[in-house]
Amino acid sequence: MKRVLNTIIVLFFSVFMCVFSSMNAFAWDADTTHLYICFGEVPEGTAFADILVKEDWKRYKGEEDCIHGFNGNLLGLDGSCELAKYNKDGYSSLLLMHSAVILEEYDLSQESKNRHMVLGLETTDNIFDHYRHIKVAYCDKDGKILGITNEVRVKSVPFGKAAYTIKADGSKLTCDVDTGPPFYLLILIPLGAILLLLIMIICLVIRIIRKKQSANMIKRIQSGETDNERK
Description:
Elements: H1 2-25, E1 34-39, E2 48-53, H2 69-75, H3 82-85, E3 92-93, H4 94-97, E4 101-107, E5 116-121, E6 133-139, E7 145-148, E8 152-153, E9 163-169, E10 172-178, H5 183-230
Helix pairs in contact: 1-5
């Protein structure tokens, strides 16, 4: 019995290592806590950029006529600037008029070879499950809008988290969504491993039972031959 238990433990450990290795192979190394915006050409005089969002969701909306304090102070802007007042076709400033992101880093200078912005997410939700249509506005240091890109519809992610990379080049805007490994693989791999373990245990038990049956049969035969010799 002890030998059987040891064999099952070895099988379980082997299957566990197989699952662990497979999951590492499908590991998703992505940052879902930030939004990254990469820039190509920007209008002359651009100091920073902002994402304009169309949907007005209350869960992310700040108080009426009140801009996002941290982002406003960082940029030196208040509610009187053009960006804060912008409300065309339902679009408004994500940085100033909503509480979903924090501006962490930006560099849009003409001399920069890596124009970019990094926004930290203040929510555990996929914000683009709520803000489905976006544009990017190029602004000067006073919050005056120098140009706006085309509109794009952001892909919804029904399961899990997503990593978004927004790319703006002049008036062109794209949004790449990385959802990691296919969801079904994360389910099938553990289930397949468990099924394999069960099959191996069943085969082992059947083999042990057959061995015992064979041993009992040989014992009965030998016992019968002994009785015949005595007679």
